[in-house]
Design goal:
Shape: globular
Oligomer: single chain
Low-confidence stretches: none
Distance between the termini: 16 Å
């Protein structure tokens, strides 16, 4: 019991230690403006990582989220240019993200393709489709209902950026689904032991497909938020975002083998990645070294996960 308790608390302890250490190295870190900036920067990764949590809990992986983010962004910009109502445009883009996830899930479940390979193919194809659609050029999102759309990424409520509210809403809904619904229990059962779940009568293929749909939908939502914030859709957006999302999930304590993890841990993991990025920027550390730091953090988290499983 104690071991399990401290294992769950480990990401929080890591977050506190990291925050204290950075506050000592950089007095600017604990300013209100910087904390809000960290949360706003973290919101995109946290939304993607929430969907990634669903996938990893089943023992899968999704490498396509960064490409879906970019594709959703350019499709959103294109729909805005058609003067389609904003809510209808957002709904269509979210459905597109979910549809890509469904197709990937079907390749995995019906085609018996490993998640790594299937999502790598999705990543490549969707990124290619994005580049073909845009001819490799950015698209302006400052068209159509641009002012209302800009509110999603640039607006404030009670002095807090709207993306932070969206992140909180996504995390709260995911927490409820995983902890208090039958679908959530099925996800944990599938990740814990797929054969036992199948023998118990669970439709494992349907559950797997559903979690990839969730991942695709949330990656599309992240793409909408990012496009709104930048007022443009970049065909190269989202490169490497899948690694940040995986890092957040793993650092947050979700096991890569599936069946174990919490959405609150994913939030903590996303905050750790966000704070680390912010600290390295405050200290003017090259982005190249930031990649190294993320890799080391993922390795440490995986080693701790393996040690816990042993």
């Amino acid at each position: 019991m104690n071991s399990s308790f401290f294992s769950r608390l480990r990401p929080v302890i890591g977050l506190v230690i990291l925050a204290v250490a950075i506050s000592l190295l950089s007095p600017r870190f604990l300013t209100t403006g910087n904390i809000i900036n960290v949360l706003r920067q973290t919101s995109i990764n946290a939304v993607i990582a929430t969907g990634m949590t669903f996938v990893i809990l089943t023992g899968g992986i999704d490498l396509s989220v960064g490409s879906i983010l970019a594709y959703a962004g350019v499709i959103m910009a294109a729909l805005l240019a058609t003067q389609l109502p904003l809510l209808a445009s957002i709904a269509l883009v979210l459905l597109l993200g979910a549809a890509i996830g469904v197709l990937t899930g079907l390749v995995i479940t019906k085609g018996k393709v490993q998640p790594f390979i299937a999502t790598f193919v999705s990543m490549t194809v969707v990124r290619g489709a994005t580049l073909v659609f845009t001819d490799g050029k950015p698209m302006s999102a400052d068209v159509g209902p641009a002012e209302a759309f800009a509110f999603l990424g640039q607006g404030y409520g009670f002095g807090i950026p709207v993306p932070i509210f969206l992140m909180a809403a996504v995390l709260a809904l995911a927490y409820y689904v995983l902890r208090h619904t039958r679908f959530g229990r099925y996800i944990y059962a599938l990740g814990g032991n797929e054969d036992a779940a199948r023998l118990s009568g669970l439709r494992t293929g349907l559950i797997k497909t559903a979690v990839y749909a969730v991942s695709g939908l949330l990656a599309a939502l992240a793409g909408i938020i990012l496009t709104s914030r930048l007022s443009s859709a970049q065909p190269t957006a989202g490169v490497g975002y899948e690694l940040d999302a995986i890092a957040a999930v793993v650092v947050g304590g979700t096991s890569l083998s599936g069946g174990s993890g919490r959405i609150l841990g994913t939030l903590v993991g996303a905050l750790i990645i966000g704070i680390l990025n912010n600290a390295l920027n405050l200290m003017n550390v090259s982005s190249y070294y930031q990649m190294i730091a993320k890799g080391v953090i993922i390795l440490i988290a995986v080693l701790l996960d393996r040690k816990a499983d042993a």
